[in-house]
Amino acid sequence: MRLRTLAWAFALVVVFVLPTAVRWRLEQSTAIPILRTAEGFYDPSGALQIGDIAGGTHTAFANAAALPAFPEGYVPRVYWFRVTIPHDASIASPVLSYNYKVTQIDVFGSDANGAEHVAGGFDLAGADSALVPGILQLPEWALHNTPVFVRVATVVDPRSLMLRPLAPALTASLQRRITFGFFVGFFVAIGAFNLWTFLALRDRPLLDYATVMFLEAAATVIGYGVLWQVLPPLSFLVRELIYDCAALGAAVALSVFTIGFLRLNLRDRHAYSVVLLGTACVLTVYLTDFFPNITLAWAWTLVASLVFYATLLYAGLRAGRSGMRAGRIYAVGMACMMIGYIVNMSSYSLPRQDLFIYAFQVGEALQALILAIAVAANVQETRAENQRLLVESRQLTQLAALDGLTGVLNRRSFDRALDDAAALAAATGKPLGVLIMDIDHFKDFNDTLGHQAGDEALRKVAQACGSCVRTGDVFARYGGEEFAAIVANATLEDLQHIADRMFSGLRSLEIRRADGTLLTISIGGANGTPLSPRDAAEIVHAADAELYAAKRNGRNRVNLSLYEVLV
Description:
Layout lengths: L1 H29 L1 E2 L44 E7 L9 E18 L2 E11 L7 E5 L10 E10 L5 E4 H36 L2 H20 L2 H5 L5 H26 L2 H4 L1 H15 L1 H4 L5 H28 L3 H21 L13 H43 L9 H18 L3 E8 L2 H8 L1 H16 L7 E6 L2 E7 L3 H18 L11 E8 L7 H17 L5 E5 L5
Parallel strand pairs: 11-12
Antiparallel strand pairs: 1-7, 2-6, 3-4, 3-5, 3-6, 3-7, 8-10, 8-11, 9-10
């Protein structure tokens, strides 16, 4: 399990850390910041129109430092600026690169007829992701010291605009697509494995966790902009509501999984109530799509999500403190999720925010991996507990079927076995034999030698006589000092042979009375073919009558009879 965890951690490092480091190094050596030489203006209100570009007088900025601090959230800022893109022969196939979340970036040229749109369009990085890299192919004439106008709308960091070679820009963009496929495939793989395991083991937490993973995969697909590209006619609000259905559906599924996995409704009612409160809190994120103040909507989303994750972490910690090993593993997974979310949402205040592009997704992946380990550990614990309960149940069943003193079957087990043997004999038409034996003068044995010696004698007689019946026959304590045997498909000769072995076995024990004589038994037996299970009682009654006949005839003998069942 540890090697598997290390392998996944190494894969995460290879997929995310190394490409990011390489990209950062390339940026330092080849990128040219565009706004460093910008000649234009900005309009955070969004009121500036395309027609205002040519000849308009606006406040200019010398470089990116003049721009206000870039905030998180879907703040509808629109920036216009005029820039002459420098021609640098050292940059092969130059493209315009930028970091964005949800973006509408367009490039316009100016001619005698006004402004003309030459490049740009709408794109989405993901509703819950940090800024991700994008590229924009420019026309050839824009790369030869010709002024162009750039319009940046919604959530794009204008300071990230750079002129870069096509190869590293494509590498950065390709890294995002590989990452997208990795996360979606990761969640689907874990979900499919847990679903397959659930079908094999029928353990409910496996199904709940598979649901969480599939919804996480759906939210990732939507969050990375697939829905925006497949359904372009939808409004931004509708798209956000669809994303929230998947993301918050995954949150609800995670809370359901948590309650069932940690058994909060049975073990910890306080943590159960706290998780329900956190789930209700995170569901209010639906309402933020209708908030008129976008910054307030983002702030409430952050608070509600952190409260939700904190309640799950709290439940895991309480379960771990109560002795549940899987609860401690669960708490570690939730902690990874919270750290990734916090780093992602605070990345805009960091100097190199693009290095934390996938913080939230990495946190999700680590959480998924750790929770999968917790589920596996819980399944192992549950199966071990079920196995222990099964063994105990079998032991209790066996103890309930045995006589506590002698260790052979008790009277209840004898009656049940007799019914089964009689039903089989009636169905097959084969005979059924019963032997009943009684220790001779056992009361006198107890009175003279004591009950402890009597109990020991009963145990020895039971073991000696019980070993004389055939495999598949039944031997039980019938009551007091009496024992009985059920002998299926047996003739009177078979009953005689078994009785003879019992006499011989008892003599070999040499159990003596107070006067020095050996302890003996008397046996009565009957044989008959029952027409129905009810006839078994008549065969037992006949065997009991033969036992009393043996006692009247001097004891230490066997009396057998053939019982004819009357139609």
